[in-house]
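User: I'm designing a mutation panel for Transmembrane protein 186 and want to avoid disrupting the core. Could you give me a predicted structure to guide residue selection? Please restate the sequence first so the numbering is unambiguous.

Assistant: Good idea. Sequence first, for numbering, then the predicted structure tokens:
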Amino acid sequence: MPRWPAAPPDQGAGSQVHQTVPFIVVSNQALRDPLQARRCFSSIASEEKRLTEPNKDGALGKTVLYRGVGMVPFRVLVRLKIFQLAGVAGLAIPINTFLVQGSVSSVQAVMATALVVGCAAASVTLWYYSRRYVGELSLLQRPGERQQSLCFSVLDFWGNREDNIVPPERLIAPLQGCSATQLSEIAEQSLLPIDVEGDRQYIISLRHGRLVNKQKLMNVLKGGLSREETGT
């Protein structure tokens, strides 16, 4: 368990203030057990990294509103798509040679064609939804700037995180003007499309996703953020 040293006494004006660094008491039994000692020193390194690493989100004034569900398996599927395309590309020439020069039946030809077309269709579908399914929706505000921006975090072609920052006035609020009954019906739907002018249509799930900051999220989806920026 980490123990924090007491704060040093006041040394008066002109004295240097040093950052307090935590220390961990290691027992003799932990030092005799290599596995336990490794875990102990690993926790020390993790704690030191947490304290010394700068808070990038705080510097940007980041406020997370929503996090999508199932992003880890979805990322795995998107990355497996790359190996699928590589496999199909590697088999394209042998399959084509076999169909042209070999003696094949119509059933075999149809099955080979369906295999190639099916792999291509699955890859295109995964690529389409990976660019639209939102893994994280947040508000960004840089220091010294009054205007806030929306950040839609999705997956790119390679399965890496892609942050798309858009001004709030380009968001077409999907819940603007909806009554309480309509809001209840929309909340029960699995997916909610969000259109952004000049960009694309994003998809979130109010039913299954994690609403980190529900009040601000509803305000954004109702168009309140754009009205605040324009003063209307």
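For picking mutation sites, this is relevant: Strands lie at 2-3, 23-24, 63-67, 136-140, 149-155, 161-166, 171-172, 192-196, 201-204, 210-211. The chain has three domains: 16-50, 60-68+132-230, 71-130.
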